[in-house]
Design a protein that fits this description.
Elements (H helix, E strand, L loop, with lengths): L7 H6 L4 E5 L5 E4 L1 H7 L3 H4 L4 H4 L11 H15 L3 E2 L3 E2 L2 E2 L7 E2 L2 E10 L5 E10 L1 H10 L3 H41 L11 E6 L10 E7 L5 E8 L4 H19 L5 H12 L9 E8 L4 E7 L5 E3 L5 E3 L4 E2 L14 E4 L5 E5 L11 H14 L5 H12 L9 E7 L1
Parallel strand pairs: 13-16
Antiparallel strand pairs: 1-2, 1-8, 3-7, 4-7, 5-6, 7-8, 9-19, 10-11, 11-12, 12-13, 13-17, 14-15, 14-18, 18-19
Helix pairs in contact: 6-7, 7-8, 8-9, 10-11
Length: 409
């Protein structure tokens, strides 16, 4: 039987363990038959409802921590994109046909992320092993083995919790090293000739997709010209930071000798083919000619730059868009386009962490960006960059890192 012929919905329903699917908003998307049976719930009682509306803490137990512990675990999985195995939990369940009556229950949960093509968490798999009957049986035996068993269960649970904490600490240290490495490889903010520019990098709040974004600004040979670029490497941690550094350095070098941004991205794309970890990397680069008042640009699968005109009009530079760096077959050239600007305009390049949100069309994020730029068009690059980040990034931090470049033309 081929993979296409397997009925995965039927497989899910007949799994011998308790398995539920949750959305990133912690709403039940589905639950298998064993989960429904053990939890004493019908599918219509769960699907489409918030997890903790279905299973709140026992209000009669002032020491109940099951809900808080489960929420912490699920939010950690959403932030890191990594599975989390919880310690043994007491989590009482209200008896369905006896409102106000709660049954003492013991669970051992594991929470696992399901990642989408862009690396974000699209579903949470909530697996539960129920050990209530085992504890009840030992208690009913009435001998000293009951206390020994429970002590052993909690001892093992404590050890598991300690191991998980060590793994999280190790992961946090790796993230710190990756962020430090990336910041060391990115160019420092500086004036380009007589043109003020501002750069910003904001790492993601968790490990997911951190350290893959980059930016670059270079003085080009021949006249009053600069090159401005941003890019995004899919991945996280030290590997993504190292790939980012290679691509940024290569584009910085080739931009100085290329005839235009399309040629620069074409060379970079061929280079990306031989770099492990550069798959699906995106980039956009713009050559600004101040003497001619033109911006020539080319994009390899990246969100469009924004040209903020002095009258507040925002022009999205989307007329030269091509597939990501390693997806363009040779020897076809990449496209490029030219647009004019007036003195005092601003060129804004950014990565997708600035505009993309879960379950939201990208056009919504672009509209939010254009409104912010138009509202703050009089600000200098530094203040404009801060205003855009303040208005577009979530107050509790983004799940993807963000790079932003603002150049006053």
């Amino acid at each position: 039987m081929s993979e296409a012929e397997i009925d995965y919905a039927a497989v899910f329903q007949t799994l011998p363990g308790m398995v539920a699917l949750l959305t990133p908003e912690l709403v039940y998307a589905d639950a298998n038959e064993e989960f429904l049976r053990m939890a004493g719930r019908k599918r219509e009682d769960m699907v489409g409802r918030y997890l903790f509306d279905v299973f709140p803490d026992n209000p009669n137990n002032s020491t109940a921590t099951g809900m808080r512990n489960l929420e912490t675990s699920l939010l950690r999985v959403l932030a890191t994109g990594e599975r989390d195995t919880m310690a043994l939990q007491r989590y009482d369940v209200e008896i369905p046909d006896r409102p106000g009556h709660w049954e003492e229950r013991y669970w051992s949960p594991v929470n696992v992320p399901v990642l989408g093509p862009d690396g974000t968490v699209v579903l949470l798999v909530h697996l539960v092993e129920e050990v209530t009957e085992l504890i009840r049986a030992r208690r009913a035996a009435g001998d000293g083995r009951t206390q020994v068993l429970e002590a052993e269960l909690y001892r093992r649970a404590g050890e598991l919790q300690e191991i998980n904490e060590r793994l999280r600490q190790a992961h946090a240290r790796e993230r710190e090293v990756a962020v430090a490495l990336q910041e060391a490889m990115l160019p420092a903010p500086r004036q380009l000739e007589h043109h003020p520019a501002a750069v910003r990098y904001r790492p993601a709040t968790g490990a997911l997709n951190v350290c893959g974004d980059w930016y670059d600004l270079v003085d080009l040979v021949g006249g009053d010209c600069i090159g401005v670029s941003v890019g995004d490497v899919v991945g996280h941690g030290l590997e993504a930071a190292c790939v980012m550094g290679q691509l940024r350095s290569a584009l910085s070098a080739v931009s100085r000798v290329a005839e235009g941004p399309a040629q620069a991205l074409g060379v970079l794309g061929r280079y990306a083919h031989v770099i492990d970890g550069a798959e699906s990397a995106t980039a956009v680069t713009a050559f600004v000619d101040f003497a001619r008042h033109t911006v020539t640009y080319s994009s390899a699968g990246h969100p469009p730059p924004a040209l903020l005109h002095t009258d507040g009009r925002v022009e999205l530079l989307d007329r030269a868009t091509d597939p990501p760096l390693d997806a363009r077959p040779d020897p076809l050239p990449r496209p490029q386009a030219v647009t004019a600007f007036e003195d005092g305009a601003a060129l804004v390049l950014y990565t997708d962490g600035l505009i993309e949100r879960r379950r939201e069309d990208i056009d919504t994020g672009l509209a939010r960006l254009t409104r912010s730029l138009a509202a703050h068009r009089e600000l200098d690059p530094e203040d404009l960059a801060d205003a855009v980040l303040r208005e577009l990034l979530p107050p509790d931090g983004a799940t993807d890192d963000t790079a932003l470049v603002v150049v006053r033309l």
